[in-house]
Amino acid sequence: xxxxxxxxxxxxxxxxxxxxxxxxxxxxxxxxxxxxxxxxxxxxxxxxxxxxxxxxxxxxxxxxxxxxxxxxxxxxxxxxxxxxxxxxxxxxxxxxxxxxxxxxxxxxxxxxxxxxxxxxxxxxxxxxxxxxxxx
Length: 135
Fold this sequence. Notes:
Layout: E1 2-4, H1 12-17, E2 24-29, E3 35-40, E4 43-45, E5 50-56, H2 60-68, E6 73-81, E7 84-95, H3 98-111, E8 121-133
Antiparallel strand pairs: 1-8, 2-3, 2-6, 4-5, 5-8, 6-7, 7-8
């Protein structure tokens, strides 16, 4: 099934799936347009259509998103559990302001665990434009 993030309703199954603790992948694009895929923790707020990934500001994924500037970088996050899967595509923007980072850390702690301290932490805020999957 493929749905747009603009769809007004999100199924309870999809909400639940993105609350369960699953390792995810984040795909960004390198300068040569080849995919850079790494494991990450992702939080998703289906009501706002926003997914978040916390990371070090010195990571390659942060550099890829930073290079895109204010327009944002095209990205995808995906999680799989057996036959269930969901991919969220959208535009990511890098945020390093303390309130946005703190909010993302709190969301991460609810889904995974309290993140270790990292003074270089930033958050990739993804405005979801497309949802794919069978959940």
